[in-house]
């Protein structure tokens, strides 16, 4: 299925290094299995705040994805990307992973989009990857329910 034929969910976090990248890879892995006509991308709202982010993707996220059997391919080799208005325009659904952290950044940098973002409550801390996995699976379930309706 071509990317152009599918809808895009855009995952946002601060540095596009850990949470949003894990959500993107997990979502794409699960949609390949389910054949749901969606794909994920991800971006960071404030890459400049990721002073400890070294390399393309958090090793903890890569390790967890490997343990889950997710084939990352080039997804884990690209460097973090900053969010642009064009990215928001292309997305059919936008998810920010931590409301308290990301809502103020969206207000500051992309105020016209504040009400079009779904805000989750996932901290940027060790051990959150299973929470992201569950949230992604829940989102896929909701998308599948809409597709079946």
State the low-pLDDT regions, or none. Answer: none
CATH architect. name: 3-Layer(aba) Sandwich
Largest sheet: 4 strands, parallel
Count, helices = 5
What is the third-level CATH name, the topology? Rossmann fold
Summed up, the domain count is: 1
Radius of gyration: 14 Å
Share of β-strand residues: 5-15%
Oligomer: single chain
What global shape is seen? globular
- Give me the strand/helix succession: EHEHHEHEH
Widest sheet, order of strands: 2-1-3-4
What structural class results from the helix and strand content? alpha/beta
Q: Tags for this entry?
A:
single chain; 149 residues; alpha/beta; Rossmann fold; four-stranded parallel β-sheet; 5 helices; 42% helix; 14% strand
Give a short synopsis of this structure:
The protein is α/β, with parallel strands linked by helices.
Task: Explain what you see.
The protein has 149 residues and is an alpha/beta fold. It has a single domain, classed as 3-Layer(aba) Sandwich (Rossmann fold), CATH 3.40.50. The chain is 42% helix and 14% strand. It has a four-stranded parallel sheet. The chain is globular. The mean pLDDT is 91.
């Amino acid at each position: 299925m071509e990317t152009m034929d599918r809808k895009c969910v855009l995952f946002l976090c601060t540095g596009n290094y850990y949470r949003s990248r894990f959500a993107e890879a997990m979502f794409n892995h699960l949609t390949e299995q389910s054949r749901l006509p969606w794909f994920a991308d991800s971006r960071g709202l404030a890459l400049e705040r990721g002073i400890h982010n070294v390399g393309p993707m958090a090793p903890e996220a890569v390790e967890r994805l490997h343990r889950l059997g997710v084939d990352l391919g080039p997804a884990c080799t690209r460097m973090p990307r900053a969010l642009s208005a064009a990215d928001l325009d292309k997305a059919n659904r936008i998810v920010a992973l931590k409301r308290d952290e990301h809502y103020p950044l969206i207000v500051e940098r992309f105020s016209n989009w504040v009400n079009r973002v779904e805000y989750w409550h996932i901290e940027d801390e060790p051990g959150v990857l299973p929470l992201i996995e569950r949230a992604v699976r829940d989102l896929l379930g909701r998308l599948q329910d809409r597709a079946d309706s």
